[in-house]
Amino acid sequence: MRSNSEEPAAEALLKMLEIQWQDHFQTRTQTWRALEITAIIAVALVGLDWKVGNPLITIVSASLLIMVTQFGIQITLRHRKVEETKFRIIASVEKQLNIADTDVRLPEPISWWSIFKVWKSNTLLFILRMHFVIQLFAICYLILRVFDLWKS
Q1: Per-residue pLDDT for 101 more than 60?
Q2: In the chain, what are the domain boundaries?
């Protein structure tokens, strides 16, 4: 049985654990939201191109999408660093509370080049790869419309 002095310490650790998990989920939600916004802008680019048909407007829109996808990639990479920190804290607190799962591995760092490591797969890599694919799409769209403008 715990003494009275151990009870508040355990409560504080449990509250810290709860906060760390909430921060992790909030960060993950933000990462997914960035991908959602990027995908919506990609769909809007195609719709704008079909509806307006002005290569100059499409070029500007595709350029903006390329920037948005780059920001999405940066957000995803930054959020992985946050996730690594959060999980180190979570693992430490769980160990102090004697509830640690020894089979759980901490998240591995990822970089921009991780996109091409097809043998690796996790949620953040999926999000990173989706930003990259949308960015490639925007670059191709931009090149096509610059070529159309140049031809005319």
Answers
A1: yes
A2: 6-151
